[in-house]
Amino acid sequence: LGSRTMSNSAANIKNVCVVGAGQMGIGIGLVAARTAKLNIQFIDSSPVQLDKGMAFLDKLLVKDVAKGKCTEDERSSVKARITTSPSIAAMNNADFVIEAVSENAVLKRKIFAELSQKLSENTILATNTSSISITKIASAAKRPENVIGMHFMNPVPVMKLVEIIPGLQTSKETLGTTLALAQSMGKTTTMSQDVPGFIANRLLMPYINEAIIALQEGIATKEDIDTTMKLGTNNPMGPLTLADFIGLDTCLAIMQVLHREFGDSKYRPAVLLQKYVDAGWLGVKSGRGIYDYA
Ligand code: CAA
Question: Nearest residue CA, atom 39 of ligand 1?
């Protein structure tokens, strides 16, 4: 795909709908409104989550104003480009939809089927899934050729990468427009086959899972496991801190996909990971995970 095709297709995108106002959705919407200067509509079935998400988004802008990275005018114009709604039925005319709900194939397929009823022929539907098959999600949509994987990293405003994953049905036009949108959001893209975990989580999650197994086996304390990998291999966070930051429920869901889809015991989720999730200790977001954040 030539760069001319890519920039032409990005120019047609003005209105982006982000479904799911959790930490990923909010980060994606913020970067699309701020860097790409697009109009954003957040849709989340929970009004409480919408309020929480908007408060978080404004907190990030206020922090950047305080640090001199953003002016008050820019903060107001970014916020003016953003609207919210609790229902897909009230969706505006979106040129591009990015779904960022929790990592659940049944829920994602339901949302794609519902979105399909509302969208024009050319609207692209991207999913931020971190491990579920794009081909499977696409088959729930009316126009599977318009569906693609767009996997952002957390925290979205800071992390430069977006993994792009075409499904079996994805058209070249959908791929070109999606690459162009990611570029206009200031991101570098990589492209992966539609296989469980794509590139990032195929490598990252077994590493995190192995760190939890090391903890479970009493090889070392959690602090020593993290310090070894942080200072010994120059990572910004150790694997256990990173797991809490991503969310232990998300880590477990991804390991389960890898385990089920590949059918290889090397991907079995750590018993201790399952135990933390059963206890409701999900990491930073719930106040307790492998570490205590209370
Ligand atoms: N949202 C937006 N910005 C955030 C943020 C958040 N949740 N958390 C931190 N930041 C920003 C801070 O505001 C700060 O920005 P400024 O420089 O403009 O002030 C910047 O990040 C650095 O933050 P801090 O100084 O507070 O802390 P730090 O230097 O320790 O950096 C970090 C924090 C960027 C999270 C860093 O620890 C890091 O890079 N960690 C690893 C992150 C990572 O690996 N992410 C990928 C996870 S895997 C994934 O997302 C895929 C998946 O499917 C599971």
Answer: 236
